[in-house]
Amino acid sequence: MTKKCDFVIELRDVWKIYKMGDVNVPALRGLSLQICKGDFVSIMGPSGSGKSTAMNMVGALDVPTKGKIFLNGQNIAKLSESDLAQIRGKTIGFIFQQFNLLPTLSALENVTLPMIFQGTPREERIEKAKQLLMMVGLGDRMHHKPSELSGGQQQRVAIARSLCNDPEVILADEPTGNLDSKTGNEIMALLGGLNRDQGKTVIMVTHDANVAKHADRVELLKDGQVKKDGHAMLRKLRRGVKK
Amino acid sequence: MIWDFLKYGAGNIGKRRLRSWLTMIGIFVGIAAVVALVSLGQGLTKYVDEEFAKLGRDKIIIQPKGTLGGVVSVGGVEIDDSDLREVLGTKGVVDATGMNYGTVKIEFNDQVRYYFNIGIPQGKEGKLVYELFTSYDVEVGRNLKKGDKNKVVLGHYFLDRNLFEKNVKVGDKILLNDEEFEVIGFYEIIGNPSDDTQTYITREAYLDLFDVEDDKYDYLLAKSDISEEPEVVVDRIEETLRKHRDKEEGSEDVDVVSFAQYAEVFKAVFNVVQVVIIGIACISLIVGGIGIMNTMFTAVLQRTQEIGIMKSVGARNSDIMILFLIESGILGLAGGAIGIIFGASFAKLIEVFATVALESTLLQAYFPPYLIVGSLVFSFVVGALSGIIPAYRASKLKPVDALRYE
Question: Is B142 in the A-facing interface, judged by CB distances under 8 Å?
């Protein structure tokens, strides 16, 4: 990884240590990672490798015990929760394994929600949300509640929601984990399109090699650090060596 | 933004309907009690105001000190003609007269009852009395007139309330303190039992019946000049009588009170009573507030993941705080609104009951706008205040922990 690029996200020697009673459990041990604008990166690793913790750091959902995290050149490691919230809302769009839609709101309202917190005017919000829902193929399901939608449809709503504030980075945590393989492929195609056509930086955490291969780059995590053989892994995956 | 938050809060309340209803009961009972009590209290105060306005703010009563509730004199203080002349001669007094009253034994059909009897002066001296009691129109029969001896006019209750086994009618003979009187009429209903059970005879007849000397009175009634403040005239009468009766300031043996002052005293006492009762009703509001707090704590727990989701899509701590405060405020407001409806209905029910069963117009529910608006605002504030701690707790949740919560 020597190519020159604008870093969207850069983690420098990031440590996250959880206290479990008297015992300190390090989840990240000096993790360093650079993600360029327009990258499509998969973060892989076995359970307990620290990939979820890494994703929380990248997504400004949590702050590190030690180290620096730069988002567009700004160190966010020491920011207050409310500042982080604003940064999350503007810069990062989240897609979760559990879809994480609000059950009381319709698809349209779920998509408008992040815009409310950014103070977008009502008309504009609704217009944008409608466009996005049509883009993900849910033009006829806008007023349905999550419970009235299939898993794949819910994840599409979540994707539309992640895009509503026009973030630079899409952060997807096991986006296909709760979907069958066909629907999963459709969702991956959608994410790939966002990266290719709209230039969004996509960071995806997964343990599924079939999903990970959609990325341009794979970062393998083990024991809270990046293992160096991510590229070899990707090449293997691309050659069709499936697990 | 606030509109969206309101919609979200209302949606959540609607989703857990039963719990919301149960939560609102505390607020609802408290507000219903406050609205019912205050509206009836306001109605009563208004009635008193109107009655005193009818009687006239310019009327002044002079009676022996120690007269209990205007009824029984315990001090042996006497008021006589010389006092009446002094009062009449006081600057600002345009008319004055003396009145006598006492408890009388009434016998009819061999049954005995005890009620008040009033001796009403007739002719010029009686003018002020009749002016004062403008509501004393005769419904059946005729009123008293000068020279009526052994004639009695009765309060309305004698006509149709079975005060005796058989109701009395015009022309019947009844015994007052063992002397025979002919019933010549009945007054219209006044609305309170003590007035409606009184018996009225001429002052002449009264003096004979109770063996009272002509120049002795139980109380004096005066009318102040319309251009003078009644309180100023009251002060002058007090001073005149102090001199006349040779009393030091502070040791007077008669009370001089204007009707305006009566109304104020009544209202002051009544307000204290009302504040105490409302205070008790507020206990229910406190309990209701705690109920809301409890519900909101549960809501924060149940919606921890939702809070995490909202934070992950950009909600600040303050946004979460406002969301939960609005929700608890809506709970309070809805409870308050239902409470107002129930409280108002209950007050109206009491009013109807009082009017029909007691034939009294004393209890009229009155709903001033400030009562309705105030109750709504207050219930919203109780709700929102109760939600502060849960909302604060929700706002402080870490997004990572909240997202992971199941």
Answer: no
- Scan residues 142-181 of A and list those with Cβ closer than 8 Å to B: 161, 165
Selected for mutation to probe chain A from B15, B312, B393 (highest A CB count within 10 Å) is: B312
- Is A16 near chain B, with CB under 8 Å? no
pTM of the predicted protein model:
0.70
Residue B40's CB: how many other CB atoms inside 10 A? 23
Alpha carbons A36 and A15: distance in angstroms, whole number: 21
Asked if B314's CB is within 8 angstroms of A85's CB, the reply is yes
Mean pLDDT of B110-139: 81
Please indicate if any CB of chain B lies within 8 Å of the CB of A5: no
Residue A26 contacts residue A224 (beta carbons within 8 Å):
yes
What DSSP string describes A110-163?
HHHHHHHHTT--HHHHHHHHHHHHHHTT-TT-TT--GGGS-HHHHHHHHHHHHH
Q: What per-residue string of b and e applies to A11-37 under the rule 16 or more CB within 10 Å gives b?
A: bbebebeeeeeeeeebbbeebebbbbe
β-strand A74-75 against A92-95: which pairing, if any?
unpaired
Q: Least CA distance to A103: which residue of chain B?
A: B306
CB contact under 8 A, B317 and A81: yes
Whether A123 and chain B come into contact, CB under 8 Å, resolves to no
Q: What is the pLDDT of residues B134-180, one digit of tens each?
A: 556 888 899 888 888 899 999 888 888 888 888 888 999 999 999 99
Chain B: residue whose CA lies nearest to A114 = B313
Q: Which of A148, A224, A215 is nearest to A175 (CA)?
A: A215
Which pLDDT score, from 0 to 100, does residue A242 have? 47
Q: What is the percentage of chain B residues whose pLDDT exceeds 90?
A: 27
Distance separating alpha carbons of residues A130 and B380, to the nearest angstrom = 35
Inter-residue contact B259 to B51 (CB < 8 Å): no
Contact between B371 and B39 under an 8 Å Cβ cutoff? The reply is yes
Give the chain B residue nearest A54 (alpha carbons): B400
| B1 and chain A in contact, CB less than 8 A | yes
- Provide the CA B268 distance to its chain's centre, in angstroms: 10
Distance (Å, whole) CA A39 – CA A202: 6
Query: In which residue ranges of chain A is pLDDT below 50?
Result: 1-2, 241-243
Q: Are B100 and B233 in contact (CB under 8 A)?
A: no
Exposure on the CB side of residue A102, measured as CA atoms within 13 A:
26
Contacts B317 to A, Cβ<8 Å:
81-82, 85
Rounded to the nearest 10 degrees, the angle between the axes of helix A151-163 and helix A122-135 is 130
Q: CA nearest B2 in A: which residue?
A: A116
Domain boundaries, chain A: 39-63+80-238
**Per-residue model confidence (pLDDT) at position B263:** 81
**Second-level CATH architecture of A39-63+80-238:** 3-Layer(aba) Sandwich (3.40)
Q: Which sign does the torsion angle of CA A163, A168, A174, A179 carry?
A: positive
Q: Which amino acid is at B65?
A: K
Residue B315 contacts A, CB cutoff 8 Å:
yes
A39 contacts A7 by C-beta, under 8 angstroms: no
Q: Does B11 touch chain A (CB under 8 A)?
A: yes
Q: Do B4 and A61 touch (CB under 8 A)?
A: no
Q: Which residues of B touch A105 (CB under 8 A)?
A: 8, 11
Output the CA angle B164-B170-B173, nearest 5 degrees.
65
- Using CB atoms within 10 Å of the CB of residue A194, give its burial: 0 to 12 exposed, 13 to 18 middle, 19+ buried: buried
